[in-house]
Amino acid sequence: MNTELFKHIYFRLPILVRLFLTILLVMLFFGTVIHFIEPKQFPTIFDGIWWAVVTGATVGYGDYVPLTQLGRIIGIVLILTGGGLLTFYITQFAAATVQHESDLSRGKVAYKGNHHIIIVGWNERSRILMNRILKHDPKKEIVLIDQTVSQMSYRDFPIHFIHGDPTDDYFLQKANIKEAERVVITADDHKSEKQADNQSILTVVAVRGNHDKVPIIVEVMTYNQIDNAKRAGASTILRPNDFMSALLYQEVFKAHSKPFETIIHFLDAQQFHHYEVPEEWVGYPFHEIINPLQKNGRLLLGIQRDGEWIFNPQRELLLVKGDILITSIPWER
């Protein structure tokens, strides 16, 4: 029974581990045998193991050499068996390294880290987002889940790539969704807007089913899918079509003054920051905290409350615990 259990465990180990254990046993065996055959030439078992490793690796330092005929026969057998095993191990190790690199670029390797950001969908928006995240925090780990690209080299894009369907629990678990810090879901450019929204909402459902507390930021293209995204569990819903339509409208009817050209450049370079309202400001009206922040060069744009963004709120709006202040530059209290 114990033998069968050992075989079951042994043959379930990775091939490199099995090879290493086999080589270890072979070297231990030959080292022990040569010690007992020639105890004067090999005073300790460790000396015998050292000789076995050096001989099996065909290094041949010559510091320990068998003198008897039987000892030399043992040496011949060791060279024929141990040397072959070591060569095979090195070959397999190199092949496994190359295979791992290939699997990594093809999105087949599971992510084992934590506190990472998961981005769903590879497109221009997610590429720019990735670059800005890494520029802000070069050590931040990013995991990309996408099924439209078949390969992504880590040397070109310093992210962990998972090739697969983001609505499938299997691929979300490969991205270690339970340990993720937040999830960003971008609309699929390869589908119609309605199909892209359906895919995004299904992804929200799958993510929320695997992690009930992770913040989910989702890009929704059509207005009638906003409520569905909320029901699915999205924390923040972005509507890029509304924003771009407003800019196009201003450009069409106010092109002579181009008031939005400066804003576009501002938004392109600006980074907004979010901070939970301090305890001492809870209960204060919105307008009373604008001046203290402006004195330090920080522009208060609005707040986020219960998942909703409120820009330029009413002056008398009272701040409550859990409100998120939105400022234009980092706020160091």
TrEMBL record:
It comes from the Bacteria. Pfam families: Ion_trans_2 (PF07885), TrkA_N (PF02254). The chain crosses the membrane at residues 15-37, 49-67, 73-98. GO terms for cellular component: plasma membrane. It is a multi-pass membrane protein. Residues 114-245 form the RCK N-terminal domain. It is found in: Cell membrane. Keywords: Ion channel, Ion transport, Membrane, Transmembrane, Transmembrane helix, Transport. GO terms for biological process: monoatomic ion transmembrane transport; potassium ion transport. InterPro entries: K_chnl_dom, NAD(P)-bd_dom_sf, RCK_C_sf, RCK_N, Trk_Ktr_HKT_K-transport. This is Potassium channel family protein. The lineage of its organism: Bacteria, Bacillati, Bacillota, Bacilli, Bacillales.
